[in-house]
Amino acid sequence: MPPPVDDSNRKPQPLVAAMSLTGRRILVVDPSQALPRALRGVQGASITIARMTMLSEELILRVSPDVVLAPLFSPDHDILDLARTLDRVGYKGPLRAYSQPLPNTAIVRAEVQQIWGDRDFEILEIPAKPH
Q: Which domain of life is it from (predicted)?
């Protein structure tokens, strides 16, 4: 088995992340100001925006998202809280968190994996705006 990969020096790839969202039904939970940058380049997507407090089995069934997208950190919760809620309401699909570049995404992925298991989870790193 190969050794774990330290991705701390990995460059963010927002274009690749955006292409993976193209044409999908996206449920965006508690978007922040970074949302437009996270979805830059995404075409043909159906986007539904919801508050975390609105998440329910009924909402998931009605929206039938191909992917759930949320900020890694929000004022009232983080992606771990969201993963727990989504698991509780029966969502099993891909989960995407967006954030400014992190020093080591492997640590965050490991924490989310404790809740989300082997389900699809990725962090979309959104570079800070140029000044």
A: Bacteria
